[in-house]
Amino acid sequence: MALVELEERLAFLARNMGTLELDGEPVYESILGIYGLAELPIRFGASP
After folding, report:
1. Residue 39 pLDDT more than 90?
2. Where are the domains of the chain?
């Protein structure tokens, strides 16, 4: 149930928040940890 609610909210935000842009370089986890993103700086632009 919670997963369905989360999907609905994310879809709503995607439609209504404007454009999504990178706001810097992504930072990846170290070799010693699990590979993945440690930081992903983003910003929302103006709504279309």
Report:
1. yes
2. 2-44
